[in-house]
Amino acid sequence: MSTPAPYYKYHVFFCTNVRADGSQCCGQCGAQASRDYLKRRTKELGLSGPGGVRINTAGCLDRCSEGPVAVVYPEGTWYTYVDNEDVEEILQSHLIGGEPVARLQLPG
């Protein structure tokens, strides 16, 4: 039996968690705005949808001290980023070009 093709070529999860106690979390680092930026960009470029790219919000991904963080599946490539320039580099290099961005990667 063969393995079916994934529904999405890439599925990106952005941690946007906000901790009620005020401790370090991705939500404090502009994660929601970065997620919204990448979702908008994938739609603008016609990359979103089945067979393409899906951008999702995730609850806590439990890497708070390394945040903000996002993870790209199916590879399971973990990223941290600072601003939309970093997010755009992930889009152009990884999601379009198929090459992960080494300088932004976290250990898996």
What's the overall geometry?
globular
Number of strands: 5
Structural class: alpha+beta
CATH topology: Glutaredoxin
Contiguous low-pLDDT stretches (5 residues minimum) are none
Could you give the order of the helices and strands? EHEEEHE
Mean pLDDT: 93
Number of helices: 2
* Widest β-sheet, arrangement of strands: 2-1-3-4-5
- CATH class placement: Alpha Beta
What's the main sheet like? 5 strands, mixed
Q: Based on the structure given, which CATH architecture is correct?
A: 3-Layer(aba) Sandwich
Taken together, the total number of domains comes to 1
Please outline what is shown here.
The chain has 108 residues and is of the alpha+beta class. Helix content is 25%, strand content 21%.
